[in-house]
Design goal:
By secondary structure, the protein is α+β, with helices and mostly antiparallel strands. It folds into two domains: 204 residues, Cytochrome Bc1 Complex, Chain A, domain 1 (2-Layer Sandwich); 181 residues, Cytochrome Bc1 Complex, Chain A, domain 1 (2-Layer Sandwich). The chain has 15 helices and 14 strands. The strands form three sheets. Strands 1-12-13-11-14-10 form a six-stranded mixed beta sheet, sandwiched between helices. It has a six-stranded mixed beta sheet with strand order 4-5-9-6-8-7, with helices on both faces. The protein has a two-stranded antiparallel sheet with strand order 2-3. The two termini are 32 Å apart.
């Protein structure tokens, strides 16, 4: 249930127009520049997206596998995250992925989510074949061994203990996911329910997971930046074209149905934390649905920064809260609007708690105005314009849109945000910021 606080928008710009006296003024926003891309599928099922930018001296190779924690095997929660680590333990012809990439002047990272796992490499464009070779070699086959499995199990278990057991509020999504979902595989966090599930993973588990999910027909390859456009298709075919698809067909995740929530859910956690914190999660349709754009704007209006409703009501106008924010999660089947509120020191907790509920009720009742909507969409678009200047961000967005079979959104989703009306946003506020959709976790300070 990883939370994101940004829009995935195409780049836009403002132009400067000159007045008759020679001074300049800002014009209305121009039509966003389109992101050029090629999109095709190899015979083995690998989806390929190319975004050529000849002005770049770097290139990005991004491989998205349509597998995440929702695909964890029974009794092996956290397995997709463990597998992300195993992907760096060597492959058929490469002993150390990082060493080879670094020798080519590159760097890399990976991210596991509920729905996907993404690997990306950034390196000088002249050395792009190194990344293609490395990614194809580990897609072809890993160096499975008991030693590498034992090493990475230890690493992941330590990460679990440090982030979930030893860090204040670190077990939030263990509590929150369990409240929000009763049957959907989002009901456990990406890192897993407990570290014993990881400790008990076997080499056979690893091999089965790899050959089912880490196949070309379950993957998207994005190449972006200053590569050689004349040869890139041939080089991709050379490295990836003969990798076989999954033997039993694609293992792609399909939407799963969670029963409709009819009443609020809550849990009080008394723990060794520095201060009380209130987390409220309002379940909504997921990132796959067009209604998400209105929900995203509503979340920003509610708690996205110092001009948001909750900041003005609970921090600027009172002394009740030290921190307050809101943002949308971006999981595919279902998502949610997460509110985080930390009462100020020495404030009566019950008073602060009541003020938070009252502020959200007032937000629903008052709704948003046209000027508030325009200001928010402009702010979000400006933020994402700067984000999209990064070729790595563009590659990540292209991979995402390809993963949901909506490549058109690369250049049209921004217009969907700009086309939102006040009624669109107020309708989702009235529908989803209701107690029936709320799951709440309250952390209280454990008394000494």
């Amino acid at each position: 249930m990883a939370t994101s606080y940004y829009l995935k928008l195409s780049p836009g710009e403002r132009v400067i127009e000159t007045e008759p006296d020679g001074t300049s003024r800002r014009s209305r926003k121009t039509t966003p520049r389109l992101i050029d891309y090629e999109h095709y599928v190899l015979p083995n099922g690998l989806t390929v997206v190319l975004h050529h930018d000849p002005k770049r001296t770097v290139a990005v190779v991004n491989v998205l596998y349509k597998v995440g924690s929702r695909n964890d095997p029974p009794g092996r929660t956290g397995f997709a995250h463990l597998f992300e680590h195993l992907m760096f333990e060597g492959s058929t012809n490469v002993d150390n992925f990082d060493d080879v990439l670094q020798m080519a002047g590159g760097e890399n990272n990976a991210m596991t989510g509920a729905d996907t796992t993404v690997y990306y490499d950034i390196l000088p464009a002249a050395n792009i074949e190194t990344a293609l070779y490395l990614e194809s070699d580990r897609m072809r086959g890993l160096s499975f061994s008991e030693k590498s499995l034992a090493t990475q199990k230890k690493v992941v278990v330590e990460e679990f203990k440090e982030t979930c057991l030893e860090e204040p509020y670190g077990d939030l999504f263990h509590h929150l996911s369990d409240l929000v979902y009763e049957t959907h595989p989002y009901r456990w966090p990406v890192i897993g329910l407990n570290f014993e599930d990881i400790e008990q993973a076997t080499l056979e588990d690893v091999k089965s997971f790899f050959y089912r999910h880490y196949r070309p027909d379950n993957a998207i390859l994005v190449v972006a930046g200053g590569f050689d456009a004349a040869t890139i298709r041939e080089r991709i075919e050379h490295y990836f074209g003969d990798i076989p698809p999954a033997a039993d067909g694609t293992a792609r995740s399909t939407p799963e149905v969670e029963a409709e929530q009819t009443a609020p859910r809550s849990r009080v956690v008394t723990a060794d934390v520095p201060s009380p914190v209130i987390y409220q999660y309002y379940r909504t349709p997921g990132r796959l649905y067009d209604i998400y754009v209105a929900l995203d704007v509503a979340a920003f209006l509610l708690g996205g920064g110092r001009s948001s409703y909750l900041y003005r009501k609970l921090i600027r106008d009172t002394d009740l809260f030290a921190e307050v924010s809101a943002g949308m999660s971006d999981t595919y089947d279902y998502a949610g609007l997460l509110v985080e509120a930390r009462p100020a020191e020495d404030v009566d907790y019950a008073t602060a708690r009541a003020a938070l509920d009252a502020a959200i009720e007032e937000f629903v009742k008052e709704g948003v105005s046209q000027s508030q909507l325009e200001k928010t969409v402009n702010r979000m678009e400006t933020t994402n314009h700067f984000k999209s200047l990064s070729v790595a961000s563009r590659a990540n967005d292209l991979a995402f849109y390809a993963s949901i079979d909506r490549m058109d959104l690369v250049n049209t989703e921004a217009a969907m945000y700009r086309a939102l009306t006040v009624e669109d946003v107020n309708e989702v506020i009235r529908e989803y910021l209701q107690p029936r959709w709320r799951s709440e976790v309250e952390y209280l300070v454990e008394e000494e």
